[in-house]
Fold:
Amino acid sequence: MSQTRRAADAPLRQPVSPALLARLFLVTFRIGAFTFGGGYAMIPLMQREFVDNHGWIEKEEIASFFAVAQSLPGVIAVNASIMIGTRIAGFAGAVAALLGVTLPSLITLVLVSLAYKAFIANPLVQAFMRGVRACVVALMATAVPTLAVPTLTSRFAWALAAGALLVTLLAPQVHAAFVLLGAGCLGLFAHLLARAKEAS
Amino acid sequence: MASLLFSLFITFCKIGLFTIGGGYAMLPFIQREVLAVHGWLSAAEIADIVAISQMTPGPIAINAATFTGMKVAGVAGACLSTLGVVLPSLVIASLVARALLAFQRSDVVKGVLMGMKPAVTGLIAAAALGILVQTLYLPAVLPASVSAFLASFAASVDWPAAALAAAAYAALSLGKKRVHPIATILACGAAGIALYYMGV
Structure:
């Protein structure tokens, strides 16, 4: 853990320097360049880089960003990067993270689209991707306990997680944003109820 | 040309603004816009986008935007389409991140996040299961009954890929010195190529 970990009441942002922005860009660029299999696959890489390697953000906080990023319009990984960038270095951080996470995909697609038929059919590319996809399975499996430890801290939280899992598996047509919205309402209700009990 | 570029930009802005949930949830909307409304791509090219997205890094919506822009108007088109699809996110996600940070001690934000954080863990567990099944279970025909499923199960699992995924999981999470996700992804891709040459 680096010394950038903050206490709960410390200022939210660190001083924004060009060096911090450059680091943020490089880290998100690396994440963007190695995320195969869509936005969800980016979550374990973000946990490893932002929480473990750089200590820019807490485990629990990144879980909130993932949750909110999914409830907003647009690309989940892009939303999450922008929110994390904002948290680390304000609007400049958001732009640096956005550029970093988008550019690898832009550059690759510009090149691939020139000869994409040959690219898709290439057996070596297919063989490489078979291995990569197996790794994405493992990566996603590591993301679950990493998120579960800071978020599943009560029986209520376990019930919500199980509910979200079941709804997604049994009724895949229900939009993830609605699942999160529903869970958010339940959380708000439970929190206000607990507050009212405390007060009385 | 200028009006075409403008039209690409506006169309992908719309896609970035009006699709919630990211990933494949964005595809029907993208398809309607670029195929039915503008006729920029054919149905076959849309199917190619999905194939390319599985083989290139980055979120599928970014890949789709870059590919469409490139096809219709070259590199300038690719850049403007991609800018279009992320611009709404930059505005919305950075404002929401600011609001979250400013009001993180309010009861409403606390309560809503208290519900959303466990739910996102459940959603990611569901995504991990989905990717696991999709990647490692490859039946020739979908089994019609439970007994048919049990009978064909062993033959339908991609066992070498499953072994690779297990090895990757061990490398990523076990021991004191966990391997970095990017190194693991590259090693698994190389293993995929090795399996191809061994004919497994």
